[in-house]
Every structure is written in structure tokens, then in C-alpha cells.
Amino acid sequence: MAPIIPPQSFPVVDALLFAPNCGQGMILITGATGLVGRHLVQRLMAESLPMRCLLPETRSRRLPWDVGDPQAPEIINGSVTDEEAFFRAVTGCHTVIHLENALWWGRRSDLEEVELAGARVLTAVARAARVGRIITLSQLGAAPSSAYPLHRVKGDVEDVIRNGGVAFTVIRSGIVYSPEDAFINHIASMLRATPLFFLMPGGGEVVLHPIYIDDLVEAIFRSMNLLRLVDTTVDIGGAEYVSLRDMMRTIMRVTGMRRILVSIPPYVLRWLTEVYHRLLPRSLMTSQWLDILAANRTAPLGNAYDYFGFQPRRFEETLLEYLPQRRHFVGLLRDTLRRGPRRA
Questions:
Q1: How many CB atoms lie within 10 A of CB 317?
Q2: What is the tens place of the pLDDT at every residue in 4-14?
Q3: CB within 8 Å of 168: residues ≥ 6 apart
Q4: How far, in Å, are 139, 151, 206, 236 from residue 209 at the CA level?
Q5: Eight-class DSSP state of 7
Q6: Other CB atoms closer than 10 Å to residue 19's CB: what's the count?
Q7: With 16 labelled, which of 105, 218, 300, 306 sits at a CA distance of 20 to 30 A?
Q8: Residue 254: CA count within 13 A, CB half-sphere
Q9: Same domain, 328 and 232
Q10: 314: DSSP letter
Q11: How many CB atoms are closer than 10 A to CB 53?
Q12: Does 308 map to a domain?
């Protein structure tokens, strides 16, 4: 396994080695229309960096950026499991930023097909095309030996990339929140749907480490030019740890939706989630959701600064900027009636 380098083993001043476009060459992004992907594309466009995106044709019809912008990425149609399309996409690329995932909507079979099979194709074509480095996003707690399917598959993906014969950087992040996320917003939508109480997994004692989308994108962006992160695994989270119970209270305080928190065994919620999934195209609380909430998921608090040279934003202060203005009932209807992405 590649080393997880303690941040004190190199000086913070090394972060000054960072400079935009240090001869990076072409950058390929998978999962470019996802939450992290679309923010990263906008960040790279702002820096005028050359890039292309591998996207299924169904997703390339409506892109979340200005396609008329001269800095807009080149689009290659295909999926991460299509070896021929993937090879066309990586040819001539120096860096691959691999973000394609089935985190919020996929069953275990989807996770294995999209993420694990995709990672195997990625390493094969990247090695053949002589790609300089693969940067991939994972989850805090990922491990092949995990008892939870999400983290087990994520751990298997990490192993495939580490042993793929291409230089790599694995960034394990905490829960990512943003104005469009599928975690904090889904909690707010469920609060709107239940005017009296909220079913909370266990006692709410699980400790999470949420990170704002802009901070995670900044870490990925800077990692492209930090050579000391080659062949390493980095854990990153936000400015503070938050227990699930405190997170729920924070969301209720910010939105003004006061509810009684009712503790319920996680296995009961998993059963209810399966029932909801059979009745509706999507369940706001998915099995992946419950995997994340099954155990503490944290990184050392100073890692964002020690590895990447910046301080992440605080949780409640950031939520106050956008969460009270969101129309949570509209989000509830949209997210529960919309079907999951179709496979290419």
C-alpha cells in the first residue's frame, strides 16, 4: 500500500511550489458533470488549462458550463467502462482526474460496475497511453476490509489504482457539502417532509468531517502541481468535526425547521430505505448514506493547511450563506421523483 505521508514530514513552504499550469499538459476529467466535477471544470476554465472530459452521450447533451467559452473542455463521448473510448480520451493527456462514481444513487452492483470496473479500465488505458499521473477522489474510511459496501468498494478502487503501474494521488475526503449536494440538502428536504420529528440513525454520536465543495476542488487543483503527493494517499476534511446529532441541530437552526430527533436502529432505517426505493425512483436516504453514517469518518484537522496550504471554511457559517434560501419542498419532489442516471 502506498504511504499516507504525515504532513510534518515536509515543510509547509513546499506548498509554494504550486503554480498554475506548471507544464501539466492536457488534463482528462471523468465524472465532469457530477458535483465535484462541474466545480472543478469551472476552476480549470478560470485558469485557462487545457482539458477534456469523458462523458456518456446522454450527459454531454446538457453541460453545466458555457460550451461557447473558448476555455470549455473538449468532450469525448463514452463511459469509463468503454475501453476504446477511454483510450481515445487519455491519449495525449498528462494527468487524469478520476471523479466518476455512483456514490449517492447506486446499488452495490452499480458501485462495482461504475467505480471498480471503471478503475480497472482506467489503469489499463492510462498505462498504455503513458499518462503521467492519476488523481482520484475517495472517501474517508475506504478500505477493502470494511464491513460497509460503499467503503469496501472505494477501498478496492484505491488498490486497483495504487497497483495499476501509473503514478497516482488518492484524496480521501469527508462529506462534501454545497448548495447542490445530496447530503445536507436531503436532510433539509426530509425535515420539510416530516413536520414533527426526524428519524436519526442510532444516537447521533457518529463524528463526521464535512468539507465545502470549493475547498475540496482547491485541494484537487493544487495537488496537480505538488510533486510530493505523487504515490501518496491524503485524508482531508473541513475546519471542524461535527457529530451527526450536532449536524442535525445545526441544519434545523439554520433553516428554522425545528424537529424532534428520534433515535432509531440503523438496521431499521436500512429496511425502510429498501421499501422507499421500491416505491419511488429515488430514496433521499440511501444505503450509501447509511454506510457513511455507520462509523466515525475524520481526518486530522490540520491536513488541508499542511498538505495544500489553505484553511477550509467553517460548516455553519457556510451553510448560512445559502441553505435558508433554498426551496426544500421543491427539492424533495425533484430528488424523489427523478430516476438515477442511466448507464452508457
A1: 11
A2: 555 544 443 34
A3: 2, 133, 134, 135, 136, 161, 162, 230, 231
A4: 11, 16, 10, 8
A5: G
A6: 9
A7: 300
A8: 23
A9: no
A10: P
A11: 27
A12: no
Domain containing 55: what range? 7-176+212-236
Q: Measured between alpha carbons, how far is 58 from 88 in angstroms, rounded to an integer? A: 18
Q: Is residue 29 part of a domain?
A: yes
Read off the pLDDT band of 122 (50, 70, 90).
very high
How many domains is the chain built from?
Answer: 2
Same domain, 20 and 159: yes
C-alpha cell at 5: 505521508
The alpha-carbon radius of gyration of the chain (Å, integer) is: 20
- pTM score, whole prediction: 0.88
- Residues 41 and 88 occupy one common structural domain: yes
Q: Which of 76-80, 95-99, 113-117, 231-235 has the lowest mean pLDDT?
A: 113-117
In the block, cell 427523478 appears at: 338
Looking at this protein, which amino acid is placed at residue 206?
V
Closest CA to 288 of 141, 172, 160: 141
User: How many helices and strands (H and E) does the chain possess?
Assistant: 14, 13
Instruction: Please provide the DSSP assignment of 256-299 as one string.
Output: T---EEEEE-HHHHHHHHHHHHHHSS--SS-HHHHHHTTS----
- Residue 152: all three cell numbers together: 469496501
Q: pLDDT category, 202, cuts 50, 70, 90? A: confident
Q: Does 2 score more than 60 pLDDT?
A: no
What nine digits make up the cell of 108?
452495490
Residues in Cβ contact with 227 at an 8 Å cutoff, skipping those fewer than 6 apart: 17
Q: Are residues 146 and 220 in the same domain?
A: yes
Contact 250, 242 (CB under 8 A): yes
Report how far residue 35's alpha carbon sits from residue 42's, in angstroms, rounded to the nearest whole number. 12
Q: Longest C-alpha distance within the chain, in Å?
A: 57
Question: pLDDT tens across 224-257, in order?
Answer: 999 999 999 999 999 999 999 999 999 999 999 9
Beta carbons of 311 and 305 less than 8 angstroms apart: yes
Q: 224 or 185, which is more confident?
A: 224
